[in-house]
Amino acid sequence: MPAELIKLYQENPERNKIEHIVNVLKNGGIVIYPTDTIYGIGCDLFNKKAIDKLCWLKGIRPKDFNLSFICYDLSDISNYVKRIDTPTFKVLKKALPGPFTFILESNSNVPKILNVNKKTVGIRIPDNNIPRMIVNILGNPIVTSSIKHDDDVLEYNTDPEVIFEEFKNQVDIVIDGGPGGNIPSTVVDCTQEEFVVLREGLGDIHEYA
């Protein structure tokens, strides 16, 4: 059965559509959604079958999956990471919501969720109301990954209708939130004494650190 294409506006996402998306996620669905950078693909953090399917779509084994979660706000993070020191928390508070993935030490909840011993986890709080409203109503984060394009020049698809045509037989929902970007988030490792930028993306951490 082909995926649904659902139009949403990030300024004011329609709650009934968001609730439908949440129900699909709870039932193990895979959803493609807009963020403040590129379009992402993800599933419910607590649905192992969905995570296995997401890994299969990405062509990777679950134990090799570099986990990133989309959270609603900073209060969600404490459920999945170890205690964040005050200087790091101040940077996160200034930079989020924003185009960053912060790598933090995971706490004991993460291995329980995925049956994989993951010592770190990437945290995303995108500056886009659509994914944040989804996880807020869902009640927990979604596991997120990027959509890579086969073309080496155009690395990320930006047109949701093109994305829909490409993935309509692989996922359950594609959210049309308008044109996406083609620059991913900046990935910042916060597990050392000093921040280390693992991937230069849209965000400039030096504005906040």
TrEMBL record:
One Pfam family per UniProt: Sua5_yciO_yrdC
PROSITE patterns: YRDC
Record-linked InterPro entries: DHBP_synth_RibB-like_a/b_dom, Sua5-like_dom, SUA5_domain
Superkingdom of the organism of origin: Bacteria
Domain YrdC-like intervals: 15-203
A molecular function (GO) term: double-stranded RNA binding
NCBIfam families registered for this protein in UniProt: L-threonylcarbamoyladenylate synthase
UniProt-recorded name of the protein: Threonylcarbamoyl-AMP synthase
Species of origin: Fulvivirga marina
